[in-house]
Amino acid sequence: MLCISAETLKSRFLADMDDGTPDEVFADLKPKNLGGWGVAQIAAGTGLAVYAMWVGILQPGFRKVPLRLQVPYIPASKAQVENVMMLLRGRAGGLTDLGSGDGRIVLTAHQRGFTPAVGYELNPWLVRLARYHAWRAGHLGKVSYLREDLWKVNLTECKNVTVFLAPSVLSLLQEKLLAELPDDALVVAGRFPFPDWTPSRTEGQGVDRAWAYSMKELRGCSQKNDE
Ligand SMILES: C[S@@+](CC[C@H](N)C(=O)[O-])C[C@H]1O[C@@H](n2cnc3c(N)ncnc32)[C@H](O)[C@@H]1O
């Protein structure tokens, strides 16, 4: 922004009248074009700021996770959360969100009667944010947000599992879920389906779509295929 007082303007104008026309004087006072170098400096500064935000705020805790398994934080929309809840209707027991972000799925699940409702999240800032949201909603202490790598979590007791993760991760996660979840477990995926599984139900359309997978049905299918 160009800031110049009326007094300064007047004195510059009178002093410069000897050297040139008023047009030349005012041309002197116009903001200068940034030029290629100025644009490059702004671009480099913005890039650095974005990188610092990525490393410092969005991805801490991921240093030990291989790059191909890193999933960025993209919170579920209201419609996505609702579609997940529709697929979980009629279910009871606990709920586990793998990669719980700011905790919205866990909090909604708790409000719909799932106990215990637990979220596993590697990013410590998001764990704090999730606890803050729970506190604001008056449910702190009734939901759990744990700073843990989802690959190291024991899932053998989980009955309802939700995942909003990238396709590259889902193909690997299939194996862990099949190996650990009980037969009566239901897995609900948002945004991307599991690449090799057939869903028992789906809800919503487009980016808001969610897929439900019954472990019993999946195991039944793989047994039939083996025979
Ligand atoms: C697409 S976001 C989904 C967040 C949340 N479930 C929602 O739907 O709003 C994926 C989350 O998974 C977390 N995440 C990725 N890999 C993880 C891992 N190995 N262990 C724990 N959390 C992980 C990310 O930090 C991110 O917050």
UniProtKB/TrEMBL annotation:
GO terms for cellular component: mitochondrion. The keyword Transferase applies. The keyword Transmembrane helix applies. Keywords: Membrane, Methyltransferase, S-adenosyl-L-methionine, Transferase, Transmembrane, Transmembrane helix. Gene3D superfamilies: Vaccinia Virus protein VP39. GO terms for molecular function: protein-lysine N-methyltransferase activity. GO terms for biological process: methylation; regulation of mitochondrial ATP synthesis coupled proton transport. The chain crosses the membrane at residues 34-58. Belongs to the ANT/ATPSC lysine N-methyltransferase family. PANTHER family: ADENINE NUCLEOTIDE TRANSLOCASE LYSINE N-METHYLTRANSFERASE, METHYLTRANSFERASE DOMAIN-CONTAINING PROTEIN. This is LOW QUALITY PROTEIN: adenine nucleotide translocase lysine N-methyltransferase. It comes from Xyrichtys novacula (Pearly razorfish).
